[in-house]
């Protein structure tokens, strides 16, 4: 059972017979989840991958180290990634590039905004955004 806490990452331990486990990461999601498929057009260099971060826990709460999986690019230079977000959530986000050495490059411009579908079985597709220099 998940305790009634805010969405985000938590270090969880288990205690049994007076012994406590090492902590492990547990992410509490922000309510009923729906899928948003993010799309961006970005030419990259070898070793670079596209990620998304934003102002909700499911998008890392603006922390690039908590960015989800890298985007997929079967139609390069268009990248896409399905992400679970709270149903009906209005959120801000940006795309970032991470390279093989772990360097992060944030796209420029204003934060992007999107509102996920409120239908519990729904999926939302973003437009195909162009990377903001």
Write the topology of this structure.
Layout (H helix, E strand, L loop, with lengths): L7 E5 L2 E2 L2 E2 L3 E5 L4 E9 L7 E6 L17 E4 L2 E9 L3 E9 L5 E3 L5 E4 L7 E8 L3
Parallel strand pairs: 5-12
Antiparallel strand pairs: 1-4, 2-3, 5-8, 6-9, 7-8, 9-10, 9-11
Total strands: the figure is 12
How are the strands of the biggest sheet laid out side by side? 7-8-5-12
Q: How much helix, percentage-wise, in residues?
A: under 10%
Describe the main β-sheet briefly: 4 strands, mixed
Give the H and E element order: EEEEEEEEEEEE
Mean pLDDT: 89
Overview of this protein structure:
The chain is built from no helices and twelve strands. The radius of gyration is 17 Å and the shape is globular. The strands form four sheets. It has a four-stranded mixed β-sheet with strand order 7-8-5-12, with no helix packed on it. Strands 6, 9, 10 and 11 form a four-stranded antiparallel β-sheet that branches. The chain has a two-stranded antiparallel sheet with strand order 1-4. The protein is mostly beta strands. The model has no long low-confidence stretch (mean pLDDT 89).
